[in-house]
Amino acid sequence: MHPHPLCPKFEAAFELLGKRWTGLIIRVLMDGPRRFRDISDSIPQMSDKMLSERFKELEAAGVLKRNIYPEKPVRIEYALTEKGKALRPVMDAVQAWAEEWVDSEGEK
Amino acid sequence: MHPHPLCPKFEAAFELLGKRWTGLIIRVLMDGPRRFRDISDSIPQMSDKMLSERFKELEAAGVLKRNIYPEKPVRIEYALTEKGKALRPVMDAVQAWAEEWVDSEGEK
């Protein structure tokens, strides 16, 4: 029996990405900047309150940023940072696995 | 504004993988079958109760299986199934991203 020392960075990444809806939010933003309502409409089961929380967490983690356009009315868009865009291989790997191994009823 | 229809399989995969500790448990098992205590020792912050729950979920999802060896005392090992082993690219992608983008204090 030998303890397996896990990389704290790996743990931190999974704690961030592992939160409910986070993967989906990032995936939507992979297609480009979106407004709050666009993302909310893409994930109908998620409440707006939850989306606000996730945005705050992902912004704090440096994965996404808010762009504010001083139009009338003001336009606010959420976009991935470089750190966020770098998650594409993760999203692609999850997608590939899901397509091959998760059955079509979405069984977990 | 156009809703982005998200693949339910992708959602289901993230709901499974996104649970706390699940990524770490799978990563430990990537190195080969392990006994309960080995995994518990590898992730000291996780309670045994939580590990039992995760094992049940991952077994139900077909990601891992229990191997029971009729020795004295009985030996029980947990091992990834083919579906579980197929998660290696996901684990590798998360690891690569974490090493590049998560700072060394494990900031999220």
TrEMBL record, chains A, B:
PROSITE patterns, A to Z: HTH_HXLR (PS51118)
Keyword Transcription annotated: yes
Domain HTH hxlR-type, residue spans: 7-106
Superkingdom per UniProt: Bacteria
Protein keywords: DNA-binding, Transcription, Transcription regulation
GO molecular function, one term: DNA binding
Protein name per its UniProtKB record: Transcriptional regulator
Organism: Polycladomyces abyssicola
